[in-house]
Amino acid sequence: MTNIFKSLSYGALIGVATLATTAQADSGDTLASVKSRGEVLCGVHPARHGFAAPDSQGNWAGLEVDYCRAIAAAIFGDADKVRFVALSSQQRFPAIQSGEVDVLVRNVTATLGRDTALGLNFAPPVFYTGTGFLVHAGSGVETVEDLDGATICVAPGSTTERNVAQIFASRGMEYTPVVIENNKQLVDAYVTGRCDALTKDKAALPGVRAYDTTDPEEHVLLPGIFSKEPLAPAVRQGDDQWYDIVKWVVYATFNAEELGVTSENAEEMRSSDDVDVMSLLGTTGDYGSKLGLTEDWAYDVITQVGNYAEIYDRHFGPDSPVQLDRDLNTQWTDGGLLYGFPIK
Amino acid sequence: MSHLDGSIRGGQKPRATLGSIIYSKTFRTIATQVVMAALVVMAGLFLYNNVVENLRAQSIATGFGFLQQDAQFDIGETPIAYNATDSYARAFLVGLLNTLRVSAAGILLATILGFSVGFARVSSNWLLSKVATGYVEIVRNVPVILQVIFWAVVLRNLPGAREAIDFGGFAFLTNRGLSFAVPATDPIHGPIIYACLAGIVLSILGGYLARRHREKTGRYISMLWPSIGLIFGLPALVWLLGGAPTALSVPALKGFNFRGGVTISPEFTALLIGIALYASGFIAEIVRAGLQATPTGQIEAARSIGLRTRFVMRYVVLPQALRVIVPPLTSQYVSLIKNSSIAVVVGYPDLVNIGNTAMNQTGQAVEAIAVMMMVYLTVSLITSTFMNVYNRLVAIKER
């Protein structure tokens, strides 16, 4: 009952909110409304360790949370001027469409369907991942091919639900999906053995293993990444200025890593005579004002949040609870997919 | 209008002038309703147009075209053939059938339990009535969603497939559900089901004829054994004629799961037990109220004319009790159907679960929710209509 009501209320929310907020979405003044509100409303995952989850002190932490903070730092010069709105998979798109949040940094896979049919625009991906499988140690499952006939626990409303169908169909294998919305119930169903495997974005699985299972040693991540999941921030279509800001905040963190600018050395790098560094830190040109921001917008982002490597290592690095190889998420100069468009 | 026409044609009353029509009560009643209806329709159209226009302005796709697209996701329990290359429309149909399946089983279970507990509550047996009271208080006062989760957790903690609880090699209970042997598929199964249905129809007809006979002659004919004979005997006869096939499809552990036989999933069972027990508590109270609404004098009068005890219940108490029981029972059935949407929490692929998935895959929330709303509305209205027809059958007929 609660769920049909939740769905219905979201339907009503879209209906009413689209009536109420069309003007805002059309005229492209998200930046103005963010400024007058004094904070960015950022849609995040309610609990995905490494990406967005409240830490032991109750503060939001994670790679995507840091991108919300980076946007706030670029606009206000203060990374704390952000309000986090935890959204379930089904809540996320209505929330961005209706203007309940200004930007969605919530494990959203950028796809053509979403780009066109949902009225969204995708900034550059902040994380490249793909479908992965967690299985019980000692179950004899070593590759995804061993899962023929298995029961698979999967969350609804995710691209994963489609990927798993495709992964099994393309290999001529069968499986039984168990689709549970509540993450705790979903993980519980897997842990108690109701399912032979749990499938999610591979990047989310170490967090599940570290935080949601009683004995992390009992669970094994299957090798390989299945499907392409570029996780990208999303904004509403029709506000180019706002889209540009989100896009260039992401590029700034890529470029800072590439240029060796960190939160530690940004102050001294301000006196650099490298024109790329000068453009990034706002000591030359008027790139900030072209975005409708201050000239040292990227300086604020880097000093308060860090460059991409710093953000990544904080949440997925060797010293973090959720360790994950950078894999595709390295700079293009190291053979990865991070390629910051130049600021010039 | 007939009143108005009559007064004009009758000629005895004053001729209808514009004024007399405007001031007539009938005209005013009708006019008010027409105006109200028009306003409601206009408001509805205005809201609908606004939503559509605004969605279009934000480049959000609208319309029900997506129902024809490939769904591209799999469903765990499918009463009809379905795979990922079928359309969203078919996926919705699978969800609807799953909702109907768990609702029908739930209504049956809740009715049997509810009536038993309701009778137990008014029983003169002290222990029985106290146990029934305790049961009602527990199942009624714990939120249904917690009950469903409780049963899901209980069932999930059953042993795994390799340590299955074995019932003589024909049934196995595991955390993957209850798997049991069923007769292997045979062409005679269809005719057996028809024979069973024919048996049920014939028993109802027989019961009706027996009652007619009793009302005419006062002589009672028990239809209990003839009915049992018809309902079970007819299918058995067809089975014998079909060569008495005895082959069984027995579940066997193969790979990860039991294959063969029939498996009832833990999600279905948890949802069924949860919503049926919850509703049975309310039904028990409705039944108790119905039974207690029958004046004691009626029972005493029935006994004093020497009516056998079971006939007192059947011909004196129940007919009067049902008049009180049926209307609130209808609401319980309708709310049980709606409660089945809790399926999402435990992962049973009902209409809402599949609707949510479709909504997220396509992003067409307004349309997906419209489909779900229409389906629940239709199912609930059909249920109420059936119950209202039944209510008319048992209601007091004043002649």
TrEMBL record, chain A:
It comes from the Bacteria. Keywords: Plasmid, Signal, Transport. SMART domains: PBPb. Residues 1-25 form the signal peptide. InterPro entries: Bact_solute-bind_prot3 (IPR051455), Solute-binding_3/MltF_N (IPR001638). Coiled coil: none annotated. Residues 39-269 form the Solute-binding protein family 3/N-terminal domain. Belongs to the bacterial solute-binding protein 3 family. This is Transporter substrate-binding domain-containing protein. It comes from Ponticoccus alexandrii.
UniProtKB/TrEMBL annotation, chain B:
Residues 96-387 form the ABC transmembrane type-1 domain. It holds the Pfam family BPD_transp_1. InterPro entries: AA_ABC_transptr_permease_3TM, ArtM/GltK/GlnP/TcyL/YhdX-like, MetI-like, MetI-like_sf. The chain crosses the membrane at residues 30-48, 102-122, 192-211, 223-248, 268-291, 368-390. Its main location: membrane. It is found in: Cell inner membrane; Cell membrane. Keywords: Amino-acid transport, Cell membrane, Membrane, Plasmid, Transmembrane, Transmembrane helix, Transport. It is a multi-pass membrane protein. It comes from the Bacteria. PANTHER family: AMINO-ACID ABC TRANSPORTER PERMEASE PROTEIN YHDX-RELATED (PTHR30614:SF37), MEMBRANE COMPONENT OF AMINO ACID ABC TRANSPORTER (PTHR30614). Belongs to the binding-protein-dependent transport system permease family. HisMQ subfamily. This is ABC transporter permease subunit. It comes from Ponticoccus alexandrii.
